[in-house]
Structures are given as C-alpha cells and as structure tokens.
Design a protein that fits this description.
alpha/beta; 3-stranded antiparallel sheet; oxidoreductase; 2 domains; binds (2S)-2-hydroxybutanedioic acid; binds nicotinamide-adenine-dinucleotide; NAD; 22% strand; tricarboxylic acid cycle; Malate dehydrogenase; 14 strands; L-2-Hydroxyisocaproate Dehydrogenase, Chain A, domain 2
C-alpha cells in the first residue's frame, strides 16, 4: 500500500503524521512545491519512528510526481488556507488552479488512485477534481463532514460533560459556515437522543457553534485548523485501506440522492476499499430537507464560479 499526501503544510503534514503513526501503508509520499519542505518534514517524521515504533516510511518530494507513482490513495491538501474574517469560498480563485493541476499530475502516475480532497472550498474542489479527471465518481471523496461531525460531537460532549467517544452525530450538507447541517435530532449519547440531556436553546447553540467551528479556530490561531482536519483525513484513509466500511459524512457526487444532481455535497457514505461505496439515505424531516436544498443552492452557485 502506498499513500501520497499533496501539500506539506499544516493539514498535509498532520494527515501524513497520523497515517504514518497508524501504519496505514508501507510508504507515504509527502509532496509540496516549496523546495525542501516535504523532504524536511518527512525526515522529521521518520525520526519519530525510533521513538514511536512504527515501520511506515515517509518520503518527501519537491513537486516530483514520479515519486508518487502507483499510489493507492492520494490526499490533496495543497492550497491557501483562510485568514480570520474570510470565508472558505473566497479561496476559490487560487485553489481551483492548484487542485486542477495537482489532480492531473497525480493521475498521470497513479491512474487508479482513490482521491481525498481537503483543499477549500472543499465541495467545489471535489466537484472540480471529479469533473476534470473524469474518473469513476466513487474514487473522489471530499473531506468536510468527518471534521464537522467531530466538532459537533465535541461541542455536545462539552455541553453534557461526557466523553466525546460516547456521542454519535453527523453533520451533512456543504462544508461552509452557513451551509453545514448539524443533525441535532439524530444525535445520541450512546443511543439515547441528546435532546433528553440538553435543553433546546443549548442544543441550538451547539449547532451554531459547530457551523462556525472552523471560523472560530481561524480567529484564535490566525490561520485555519490542522489537528482535527489531519485526524479526520487519516480516519477516512484508514477506512479505505483497511476496508472498514465506516459510515462517514463525505462530499460525494449526488445523482438524485437527497433530491440533488450534479453536485458534490456532504452525505453519509460507506467508505471502503473502493472509495465511497454507497450513500446512506437518511429520512430527513421537512426542515432538514429544506436546509439541505438551501445548502445545495449555495454550493451550486460556488460551482458555477468555476466557469465564470
Ligand atoms: N476540508 C477541510 O475540512 C479542511 C480543513 C482544514 C484545512 N482545509 C484546507 O486545506 C488547505 C491547506 O490548509 P493548510 O492549513 O495545510 O495550509 P498551508 O498553507 O499550511 O499548506 C498548504 C501547502 O500547500 C502547498 N502548495 C500550494 N500549491 C501547491 C501545489 N501546486 N502543489 C503542491 N503543493 C502546493 C503550499 O506550499 C503549502 O505548503 C486549505 O485550502 C484549507 O482551507 C480544509
Ligand atoms: O475553516 C477553515 O477554513 C478550514 C477548514 O475548512 C476547517 O473547517 O477547519
């Protein structure tokens, strides 16, 4: 098994680090355009092997795609992160060009790879990667809902003063400050609806905090987050390479599911060795359906900006 992570910045390096520590592949290639950075970070990571006991070999590359040849899974994190006060959508101009060229280069050397898109605005970048590559849709997955759901569970756990590991919940829709949909109605504390433990106004605040989870961190840090994004990306990679068939909300191409077509958006999917294997069709309430349709309108207008 060989995995490539494109972009050796905050998210790419953290993703690679999580993948390596979990020994998800024999080789992990980290590639960046900045001279020496991927090589340096890979060597730094490899020097933790003698301390942590893993056997995966990280390999750095300054824009040499030959080194990525034969990758089974590729994670694309290359691109600008937002600064405080910006939306993810404002990154489209520069990141679209980066994601397009990276996807082309990757597929030249790894035509069978499953691609996980992380760069923002993620739903549109996933759509772009799929449209430009023309590879089977099940091999292109956008990472957003896994992270948003982790934030949702964390805020629920903090509100309830319980372990996040006992909370189950999902965020679907677009990966945007106003487009994501935390499914409060379906969230549980080990199977018990969280509404039994949290008052309605508090639950609404948890949902609102989840939606601006990325913006909150960007304001605090000065750039966007990487620990949870890296862990979320590695979790999806693990479900692919170990064929765990976990249900994870991911941005995938919809063809009538959830009432939408020709759009990549976050819905629960089964993730296994073929990529996303099937979409789980949740029975949404009327309000949730309306929120999903509104979210789709926003994502669709962002996709239209690709051709503007
Ligand atoms: N989907 C999500 O949930 C999620 C979460 C966090 C961050 N992100 C996004 O991920 C992206 C990366 O964030 P970051 O914090 O790691 O940024 P960063 O600036 O730390 O790293 C980005 C890296 O990409 C590299 N890069 C730029 N163009 C490249 C190219 N053509 N080929 C190879 N490498 C190239 C840069 O040199 C840099 O090292 C941003 O777009 C950010 O918004 C998405
Ligand atoms: O918030 C961002 O811009 C980065 C990422 O999408 C996140 O949710 O952390």
């Amino acid at each position: 098994m060989k995995i490539t992570v494109v972009g050796a910045g905050a998210v790419g390096a953290t993703t690679a680090d999580n993948i390596i520590r979990r020994e998800l592949a024999e080789e992990v290639v980290l590639l960046d355009i900045k001279e020496g950075v991927a090589e340096g970070k890979s060597l730094d990571m490899y020097q933790t092997a003698a301390l942590l006991g893993f056997n995966t070999r990280p390999i750095g590359s300054t824009n040499d795609y030959e080194k990525t040849k034969g990758s089974d899974v590729v994670v694309i994190t290359s691109g600008l992160p937002r600064k405080p006060g910006m939306t993810r959508e404002e990154l489209i101009g520069i990141n679209a060009g980066i994601v397009k060229s990276v996807t082309e280069n990757i597929l030249k050397y790894s035509p069978k790879a499953i691609i996980l898109v992380v760069s923002n605005p993620m739903d549109t970048m996933t759509y772009l990667a799929l449209r430009e590559s023309g590879i089977p849709k099940k091999r292109i997955i956008g990472m957003g809902g896994a992270l948003d759901s982790a934030r949702f569970k964390t805020y629920l756990a903090l509100e309830m003063n319980v372990s996040p590991n006992d909370i189950h919940g999902m965020v679907i829709g677009g990966h945007g400050d106003t487009t994501m949909i935390p499914l409060t109605r379906l969230a549980t504390y080990n199977g018990i609806p969280v509404s039994r433990f949290i008052a309605a106004d508090k639950l609404e605040k948890v949902a609102a905090d989840t939606m601006v989870g990325g913006a909150t961190l960007t304001k605090l840090i000065g750039t966007s987050a990487w620990y949870a994004p890296g862990a979320a990306s590695a979790m999806i990679v693990e479900s692919i390479v170990r064929n765990q068939r976990r249900i994870v909300p991911c941005s995938v191409m919809l063809n009538g599911e959830y009432g939408q077509k020709d759009i990549c958006m976050g819905v629960p999917v089964v993730i296994g060795k073929g990529g996303w294997e099937k979409i789980i069709n949740l029975r949404l309430s009327d309000a949730e359906k309306a929120a999903f349709a509104k979210s789709a309108d926003a994502v669709r207008s962002m996709n239209a900006a690709l051709d503007a």
